[in-house]
Design brief:
36% of the residues lie in helices and 27% in strands. The strands form two sheets. Strands 1-4-5-6-7-10-11-12 form an eight-stranded parallel beta barrel, surrounded by five helices. It has helices spanning 34-43, 54-59, 65-74, 88-96, 106-110, 113-122, 156-166, 187-196, 210-218, 228-231, 246-252; strands spanning 7-15, 18-23, 26-32, 49-53, 79-82, 101-104, 127-135, 141-145, 150-151, 170-175, 201-204, 223-226, 232-233, 238-239.
Length: 254
Amino acid sequence: MNELFNRVIPCLLLQDGGLVKTSRFRRPRYVGDPINAIRIFNDKYVDELVLLDIQASRTGSDPDYDLIARIAGECFMPLCYGGGIRSLDQARRLVASGVEKIAVNSPAIDNPGLIAELSQEFGASSVVAAIDVKRGLLGRERVYHPGRRRSTALDPLRHAQDLVARGAGEVFLNSVDRDGSYSGFDLGLIARMSGAVSVPVIACGGASKLADMRAAIDAGASAAAAGSIFVFYGPHRAVLISYPDYSSVQELFR
């Protein structure tokens, strides 16, 4: 069983019951069945899994409880789920189905008090503040609202500090501009976020190789998450669900 302090986490995106991968939050490409992917990750002793339903986030629909329960039933690793969670009752249903962490993004922008409700109910360690960051024309960083598909006026660091103060026990930090780009993590943003909050930061967006994951950790993240490198293979991005063996991940953090 993997006991590494630093985590390397696949981030899978759900849409219409299947797995997809986006590029800069657009052009979702189908990459497979979630249950099959979970079984592959089980065999690879994956540290943790982040599962985000981008359709529920965009349309405001409820989570697909039946599918999530099936996925959680197959998962041998901790499962963090986000997408469509707007109430405590929804979160209770997800936790009852086997989800260990609840990630909240758009609803935490519209109703940050939800973070406090979830933290009081489940504890801070089960509540993840998911924050998408996009740069404007002048390079200014702003929180991106995935439901509305546009940037807000919120400063990412201040938004994170507010959500942590309300009870979030972890920050999932994703770069919109680097999503699916293979250009490496935004190390400056990771360093600033890690210095601004007192909780672990999961960095996501831009990984092209395992060395990028180490760079994110060195910049201050407690964990590095990625999608493309775990679902695509080769220069033509053929679909292949994979994960490095334990020894490779262990060597990465020595």
